[in-house]
C-alpha cells in the first residue's frame, strides 16, 4: 500500500481541516481538495491510468451528526483539479463502494494497538463486482498510524481489488517516513510540502507484489 500526503497535521493545515470538519466551513473543501490533488499527483508515474477513487466512509450516525463526509468532499475537489492538471488520468469517484459497518470510537488519543483493534472489521465492500480487478485510490483527510487505511484497504483487497493506493491531506508527525518528496513549489504558505510514505505492500494475492 502506497500512501501519500500533502503535509503534516499541524499549523495552518490542521486549522483548515478543523474548519471544514467541525465548523462546516465548506468553501475550505475546494482549496484543501487542490492540496490533496498535488499529493495524489505524486503517484502519476506509478499508479495505473485508471483509478477508482473511494473516500473512507463515515458510519451513518457520524454522517448524520456531521452532515457530510469530509473525505468525499476532498476527493471530489481533488478529482476536479486532477482532471485539469492530469487530463490523461481517468479518475472515477465511487463514494458508495465501501461501507462502515459500525460506529467506532474516535481514534484520537488511542495507542497504535488500540487504533488497530478499534477499526478491525469496521469496513465492508457493498458491491464486490464494482471493485473486482480495479485499482483503488483510497482517500481520507488524516493519516496517523495507518490503522484506518489498512483496515479499509484490507476490505477492498478481500473483495478483489487489484491494488490500493492511499492519499490523505495530512499525516501525523509521529509517522516516520522512509522517503520524502518536496513539493515546495506547490505548497501553500505556512504549510509543509507533500510527503510520501511506503506502508505495507497492498496488492491482491495474484499480483507479483507481497500480499498484505
TrEMBL record:
Q: According to the lineage, what is the superkingdom? A: Bacteria
- InterPro entries assigned: ComF/GntX_DNA_util-trans, PRTase-like, PRTase_dom
* UniProt-recorded Gene Ontology molecular function terms: glycosyltransferase activity
The protein's UniProt keywords, in alphabetical order, are: Glycosyltransferase, Transferase
User: Cross-referenced SUPFAM superfamilies, in alphabetical order?
Assistant: PRTase-like
Q: Does the keyword Ribosomal protein apply?
A: no
Q: Which residues form the Phosphoribosyltransferase domain?
A: 108-173
The entry's family comment says: Belongs to the ComF/GntX family.
Name under which the protein is recorded: Phosphoribosyltransferase family protein
Q: What is the lineage of its organism?
A: Bacteria, Pseudomonadati, Acidobacteriota, Terriglobia, Terriglobales
